[in-house]
Amino acid sequence: MRTSKYFLPTLREASAEAETVSHQLMLRAGLIRKQASGVYSYLPLGYKILKKVENIIREEMDSAGSLEILGPAIQPAELWKESQRWDEYGDEMFRLKDRHNREFCLGPTHEEIFTDIVRNDLRSYRNLPLSLYQIQSKYRDERRPRFGVMRSREFIMKDGYSFDIDQDGLDLSYDKMFDAYKRILSRLDLKYQVVEADSGNIGGSHSHEFMVISEVGEDDIIYCAECGYAANLEKAVSKITSIKSEEAPKELKQVDTPNASSIDEVADFLNVLPHNIVKARVYTNNERMFVALVKGDQKINETKLNTILDTSLLEPASEEEIKEIKSEAGFTGPLNLKDVTIICDKEVEKMRNFVVGGNKKGVHLINCNIGRDFTPDIIADIRSAKEGESCTRCGEVLSSSKGIEVGHIFKLGTKYSESLNATVLDKDGKEKPLLMGCYGIGVNRLLAAVIEQNHDEDGIIWPKALGPFQVSVIPVNVKKEEQLNLAEDIYDKLKDKFDVIIDDRKERVGVKFKDHELIGVPVQIIVGKNAADNQVEIKYRQSKDKLLLDAEKVVEALDSYF
Amino acid sequence: MRTSKYFLPTLREASAEAETVSHQLMLRAGLIRKQASGVYSYLPLGYKILKKVENIIREEMDSAGSLEILGPAIQPAELWKESQRWDEYGDEMFRLKDRHNREFCLGPTHEEIFTDIVRNDLRSYRNLPLSLYQIQSKYRDERRPRFGVMRSREFIMKDGYSFDIDQDGLDLSYDKMFDAYKRILSRLDLKYQVVEADSGNIGGSHSHEFMVISEVGEDDIIYCAECGYAANLEKAVSKITSIKSEEAPKELKQVDTPNASSIDEVADFLNVLPHNIVKARVYTNNERMFVALVKGDQKINETKLNTILDTSLLEPASEEEIKEIKSEAGFTGPLNLKDVTIICDKEVEKMRNFVVGGNKKGVHLINCNIGRDFTPDIIADIRSAKEGESCTRCGEVLSSSKGIEVGHIFKLGTKYSESLNATVLDKDGKEKPLLMGCYGIGVNRLLAAVIEQNHDEDGIIWPKALGPFQVSVIPVNVKKEEQLNLAEDIYDKLKDKFDVIIDDRKERVGVKFKDHELIGVPVQIIVGKNAADNQVEIKYRQSKDKLLLDAEKVVEALDSYF
């Protein structure tokens, strides 16, 4: 390829709205352009690299025995009504009507379509296991699209679905995908953690996320460096280290706390430590109200709450709703409430003589005790684990980091096969619902994640598997015949063996160098004034090493590098 | 690959709604499944072949110097309002709103997006010519989706756009794509015609369609076998062969034709030939009324009318509208009309003493003559050419056939660059609007077209470039060890060199044979009772030739076939 015939609109600066390095570099290197909020075009260089990522995924899927298909992006509402997700999905789903006023969505995911395919064409357990995947555009109307292609509204995903006759089969299919995902991330040279995860609105019992470690990640990971335990914050657990207090119960007293509402204010005012206060939050699922209690220095984990209460609809209650349970926003406590379910964290159970809200403005109670003053309806782990706490498996100290969720796999079980009636005949000729797994990996998000982990102040440093070209040949001064001729000679020699681009533009050499650093070509062959002696400079993007070399030795040097 | 691990749901019969052979065979061979009207999923076999078609297209685009990118399917309304096509596009465009109530469409085509990309990033004539393409799903809400993937609502298209500084550049870019399209169709072994075509609502001056010859084609082609002239019916011209009549003008007379309205009825009633009658049709473009006149045995070509009148909005007038011009539906003639433009076909100009409608119910006029009785506002070619007429270029007889439009290329000129303000600086430093071409080819329609031209009563006969597998190895009876073992041996030997599938299912051999014929694998290696003598049968799908062969000679035979 020649730069003069390529479309490589590099930029000195990215627009101010690009907050992350990957977003800035993808714009500056001319990989993507924005068409609307969360909607991007891929320019030639960007799409070339994206296809490399797709091919790595495709190879690993194929070698794991999954078969590639292509479902439609437009999906009929009827299917989603059968699975009962049409109403459940909410604002994130793009919906539209055709000319006959029939309802469709743009697929945010494809459980329904894939289940529909197999329910019509699979008859017997003998055709199982079956694993199908596609690489395709998905549509989610994100509340806040950001970070470029990292969180966009039209994005490319590999989503796959497995079908088995029993749990053992599903476990096997799941493990195969688990391993394939690890191979994909390794081939992309990514540093990552596999974490236990919540299944969210996809459903199912068992789920892992593949998290690329990065400061700009939107997810928090809790992990144990000792035993390898890792989970995302929504799911992570830590050991209960509090010992049941042996303090004698003191008399419950009402105290005025006129200007103190937050935990810190109350702690200051009453001169106690936050972990002697019990924090209460009121939630509603539109049917019933709930009060959740954790220690004052802990955070309530709403995902855990949703799971325990078997709902996905919990929302913080409004001031009016809080009044209905005979309480007051900012001063809620567990005593004397009306028509409410009290869920108490296991750590709270260990406490004695703690401070709680008085359910009146400017009032708290001290020396409150479970059993004597109130009785929780549910006691469970509802707090978020955090760095510095202890691992439930090995007792060592937990660490935390930020991660970019690039993959998510689920054991769905029979959730979709039952609602959509996807059954096969088993060995005994009985109809059995299929056991399903579902496996997603974000293709363009992977690209951004690679850049987050591989860049310097000059631009992107692609791993060898993804370099947009393998080699750039850069004549320093195209007006000097000996330089241009030698560069063209080298280009001719390389082009059948390597993916090479020659920079034949009439630009200042500084501009050229900057461009090739920015787009991250792994090796540059610079043809300058030493061309007279048939010598060139070879420069490696990653190490920044430079070396003067006989022109004849270029092929040899590249062979040994790649 | 093994059939036991593949997903190959073949059917004995396709559903009744599959009207064409390609639709029936794509369903029966398990290539596609319907998800909604005009919306399909591709199963593994279908998607495998589709990717082969895509790759052939991609190779030819790349070698023609076009660069692959990927635009979004979701396109903001603002862009389409800038080009003034948001309102123009009508019901065929899928429209939707996001959570903030902003309007989008699902791209039916991408002139706006590609023009937007270059207007932001192209600055100078030195970056030209530039040619960009993508292979992507397109969305058109067809009034009547049919013939499976041939006319569907979500379909895959390669669309490309070229950008040049002047007309010479555009001509060159256009010719390159013209040639690339011919190479693509040749590599797919298709019989086709390239025809001159109308530009329709895409716009521009110059346009060709690539028509695959087929009885089920929805387009009519007129062509001259002698000189190679070919055009679609909308655009085709034929030579005027009538000689100006030398008959003396006779007296204009009103005659009652009580029950005669159609040309045939009037001809019968008045005992004249249809070509002595002038047919009149009334149209409106919502601003003005038009009467079009052709010889009674000709058809009015509305596309030509639209082009001549520089509109795309002509519609037949209603009975009420016809009354407004002082006429009567079914009896319109060119005399004494009010506020109307009369457009007369060139053949009518040659006629004397002809019959016309009398603008009153049950009344015609005979012996009408141009000049004496009325004067047309416009005389032009407004009739449809037909088989049997003469070629305007060489005078030989024109033929006609049906065609499937698989490709369409346009010289757009500056239509989009002007409305979207896409300019570059020319040599003299002046802003100039880009000259654009646009080039579309229907990927899944090509697949269907290949099947229409390549099948027999047993199923699909893929050209070598598209076979889903190259070879099937079919053990006749998998329970007989010697057959299964020999088949497995042959499979092992072939699998690194050929794309081979072994049919290891415990099915009756008749079922297996039927499946492999149906899906159209080019060569079958049948391992039956001769396995004892280390012999197998080789069967060629296209020729139906069968040959007994030593197992050792299989590789050799395949080498010489492929």
UniProtKB/TrEMBL annotation, chains A, B:
It catalyses: tRNA(Pro) + L-proline + ATP = L-prolyl-tRNA(Pro) + AMP + diphosphate. Signal peptide: none annotated. One of its GO terms (biological process) is prolyl-tRNA aminoacylation. Its EC number is 6.1.1.15. The keyword Aminoacyl-tRNA synthetase applies. It holds the Pfam family tRNA-synt_2b. One of its GO terms (molecular function) is catalytic activity, acting on a protein. Keywords: Aminoacyl-tRNA synthetase, ATP-binding, Cytoplasm, Ligase, Nucleotide-binding, Protein biosynthesis. Residues 38-463 form the Aminoacyl-transfer RNA synthetases class-II family profile domain. It is found in: Cytoplasm. One of its GO terms (cellular component) is cytosol. Its main location: cytoplasm. Consists of three domains: the N-terminal catalytic domain, the editing domain and the C-terminal anticodon-binding domain. Homodimer. Catalyzes the attachment of proline to tRNA(Pro) in a two-step reaction: proline is first activated by ATP to form Pro-AMP and then transferred to the acceptor end of tRNA(Pro). As ProRS can inadvertently accommodate and process non-cognate amino acids such as alanine and cysteine, to avoid such errors it has two additional distinct editing activities against alanine. One activity is designated as 'pretransfer' editing and involves the tRNA(Pro)-independent hydrolysis of activated Ala-AMP. Belongs to the class-II aminoacyl-tRNA synthetase family. ProS type 1 subfamily. PANTHER family: MITOCHONDRIAL RIBOSOME PROTEIN L39/PROLYL-TRNA LIGASE FAMILY MEMBER, PROLINE--TRNA LIGASE. This is Proline--tRNA ligase. It comes from Proteinivorax hydrogeniformans.
